[in-house]
């Protein structure tokens, strides 16, 4: 009798743990409004369609991802990372190869597809300005680097990533198609000229706060944050002149427990409708080329993919190759 | 009453008898320290000497680069500044608390502790809002006509010092209060009766008596400041970066754990040596003052 109960209990435990494993997927992103939007646009329809529950985790932490993979104890299935990091991590063997028999890449913007990653959404570094706080707003990167014409503090992204170095070179007159390989000496020399006028932002919320409070009335921001700022009633201006694009990417860490379900999730997340839904709420552009026609034209117009006229593509391949070397120099320069 | 004595003496005897073979008793504590402190530190040490290549390259790079040395110097300067200002503000506060009616003092203690228990990030953001160009303080000063241009109070050394001092104050007021409270007011009366003026009472009677508490509190604030991350990162500029932020960059952004480990170990060694100095000077029991 005892034995029967034990066996039954054992079977029950196996069944429960068995189903639990197959029916949940852990998705990790950056938190905040972006992850909320990803939950609504991607995770909910995925659960409706497949019955697989998505557990949200975050924020994304590259140190943690590496530790998990090295220890063979991966608890994340799909992670939203920056594009340059995705390219590097793929090379370093930290990621699973994506299954393109499940994920249809024919409709995805090829700029953001590698063997190990596909774009999650794409954004631009634009020149944002609090129009109430200043007489005139800077329109070009050269303006933003010109402290005589535009005196006052300006804000830039603090971490080493595509965006600021490109902006410095463009401001210094390097043509957009001659940016790579990046002339770091020239970029840092240009950055030196405004160093004491820079306030760094390390999170999107902080960049909004700096602009709204006019602590730094202008600077280089993610376009989605400018959309949010305008929606919150701040009289803001966005200049798309030479907007610098980069994308977030979806990756699967090596050894992820539910990699099969992860591929299905990525397939859904990058399909036309969920991409359009995410773009609508975040102000970031879809990476699926069919998404634009699913959105109303007024919204679509505000997204980076409609600003291609003077768009500059940050080279993820270049950054993946040189991320560590640039990072080291970047932080040393900042601290100097 | 007699039962109490019996129990007490019995415990005393057992512990005395057990002392020579006390290893078994402290085993759980040792195990705890071993698992949660020694093992991670050793792992960190190993990483710092084996990644990316075996050897002391990380340490050489860390201690041989002007930038990193500047970050070390910043860390000590900020910590020293915060300690000095905390002491300057904390001493009069502790003194006032010690001589004030108990009921009022406990009210102020409640405020002190409440601020200590409030979320660190929230307090830091509050300072950010207060100190910025369009913040309350600048607006007030400009409204009073004291300044024409907003003062740069945040994203620089001033911001870090204000924010950190605010957070550290309870840690210096509490030990100082403990020490000052134990000083017999009669001693000061005696000094005054013997002809000492107020200044002499302070410098030759009160301060020497409170010295232990001051040093203990100051050392605690200094050591805590050395490893501070959130406040300097949010209220400071990159030009006065502190060690903890450098470690965060190595680990999170550059994913260079060798360098991160090396920097963390340097910080740990400095901290532990300061504690050793404290123990050496004051012994374990006396850190709270006597």
TrEMBL record, chain A:
Q: Supply the Pfam families for this chain.
A: SBP_bac_8
Give the top-rank taxon of the lineage listed in the UniProt record for this protein.
Answer: Bacteria
Which residues, if any, are the signal sequence? 1-22
Q: Which UniProt keywords apply?
A: Periplasm, Plasmid, Signal
- What CDD domains does its record include? PBP2_polyamine_RpCGA009
PANTHER family to which the protein is assigned, alphabetical:
ABC TRANSPORTER SUBSTRATE-BINDING PROTEIN, SPERMIDINE/PUTRESCINE-BINDING PERIPLASMIC PROTEIN
Protein name (record): Extracellular solute-binding protein
Species assigned in the record: Rhizobium jaguaris
TrEMBL record, chain B:
> Where is each ABC transmembrane type-1 domain found?
72-278
Main location class: membrane
Give me the Gene Ontology terms describing cellular component: plasma membrane
- Keyword Transport among UniProt keywords: yes
Subcellular location(s) per record: Cell membrane
User: Per its UniProt record, what PROSITE patterns does this chain match?
Assistant: ABC_TM1
Transmembrane regions listed in the UniProt entry? 29-50, 71-98, 104-122, 157-180, 205-230, 250-277
Keywords, A to Z?
A: Cell membrane, Membrane, Plasmid, Transmembrane, Transmembrane helix, Transport
Q: Which GO terms describe its biological process?
A: transmembrane transport
InterPro entries in the cross-refs: MetI-like, MetI-like_sf
Which is an annotated Pfam family here? BPD_transp_1
How does the record say this protein sits in the membrane? Multi-pass membrane protein
Homology family: Belongs to the binding-protein-dependent transport system permease family. CysTW subfamily.
What this protein is called in its record is ABC transporter permease
Species this chain originates from: Rhizobium jaguaris
């Amino acid at each position: 009798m005892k034995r029967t109960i034990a066996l039954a209990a054992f079977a029950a435990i196996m069944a429960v743990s068995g189903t639990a494993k197959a029916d949940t997927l852990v998705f990790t992103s950056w938190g905040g409004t972006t992850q909320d939007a990803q939950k609504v646009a991607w995770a909910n329809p995925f659960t409706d369609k497949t019955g697989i529950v998505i557990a949200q985790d975050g924020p994304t932490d590259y140190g943690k991802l590496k530790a998990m993979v090295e220890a063979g104890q991966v608890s994340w299935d799909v992670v939203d990372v920056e594009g340059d990091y995705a390219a590097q991590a793929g090379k370093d063997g930290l990621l699973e190869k994506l299954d393109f028999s499940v994920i249809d890449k024919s409709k995805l913007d090829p700029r953001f597809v590698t063997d190990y990653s596909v774009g999650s959404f794409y954004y631009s570094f634009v020149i944002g300005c609090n129009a109430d706080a200043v007489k005139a707003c800077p329109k070009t990167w050269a303006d933003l680097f010109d402290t005589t014409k535009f005196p006052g503090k300006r804000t830039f992204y603090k971490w080493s990533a595509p965006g600021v170095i490109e902006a410095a070179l463009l401001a210094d007159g390097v043509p957009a198609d001659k940016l790579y390989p990046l002339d770091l000496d020239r970029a840092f020399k240009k950055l030196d000229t405004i160093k004491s006028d820079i306030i760094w932002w390390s999170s999107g919320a902080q960049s909004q706060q700096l602009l709204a409070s006019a602590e730094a009335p202008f600077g280089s921001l993610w376009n989605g944050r400018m959309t949010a700022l305008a929606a919150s009633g701040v009289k803001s201006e966005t200049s798309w002149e030479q907007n610098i694009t980069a994308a977030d990417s979806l990756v699967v860490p090596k050894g992820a427990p539910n990699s099969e379900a992860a591929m299905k999730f990525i397939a859904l997340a990058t399909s036309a409708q969920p991409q359009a839904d995410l773009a609508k709420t975040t102000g970031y552009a879809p990476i699926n080329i069919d998404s634009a026609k699913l959105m109303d034209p007024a919204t679509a117009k505000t997204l980076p993919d409609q600003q291609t006229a003077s768009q500059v593509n940050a080279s993820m391949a270049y950054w993946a190759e040189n991320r560590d070397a640039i990072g080291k120099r970047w932080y040393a320069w900042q601290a100097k | 009453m007699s039962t109490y004595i019996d129990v007490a003496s019995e415990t005393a005897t057992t512990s005395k008898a057990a002392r020579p073979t006390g290893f078994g008793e402290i085993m759980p504590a040792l195990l705890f320290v071993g698992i949660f402190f020694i093992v991670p530190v050793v792992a960190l040490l190993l990483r710092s000497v084996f990644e990316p290549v075996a050897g002391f390259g990380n340490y050489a790079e860390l201690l041989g680069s002007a930038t990193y040395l500047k970050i070390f110097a910043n860390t000590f300067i900020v910590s020293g500044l915060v300690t000095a200002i905390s002491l300057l503000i904390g001493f009069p506060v502790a003194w006032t608390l010690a001589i004030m009616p108990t009921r009022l003092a406990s009210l102020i203690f409640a405020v002190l502790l409440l601020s200590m228990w409030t979320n660190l990030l929230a307090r830091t953001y509050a300072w950010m809002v207060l100190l910025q160009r369009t913040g309350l303080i600048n607006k007030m000063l400009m409204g009073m006509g004291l300044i024409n241009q907003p003062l740069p109070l945040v994203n620089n050394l001033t911001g870090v010092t204000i924010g950190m001092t605010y957070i550290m104050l309870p840690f210096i007021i509490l030990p100082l209060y403990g020490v000052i409270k134990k000083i017999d007011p009669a001693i000061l009366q005696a000094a005054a009766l013997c002809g000492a003026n107020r200044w002499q009472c302070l410098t030759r009677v009160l301060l020497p008596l409170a010295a232990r508490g001051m040093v203990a509190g100051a050392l605690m604030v200094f050591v805590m400041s050395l490893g501070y991350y959130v406040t300097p990162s949010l209220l400071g500029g990159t030009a006065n970066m502190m060690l903890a932020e450098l470690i965060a960059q190595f680990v999170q952004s550059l994913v260079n754990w060798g360098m991160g480990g090396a920097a963390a170990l340097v910080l740990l060694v400095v901290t532990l040596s300061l504690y050793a100095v404290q123990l050496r000077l004051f012994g374990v029991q006396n850190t709270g003052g006597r």
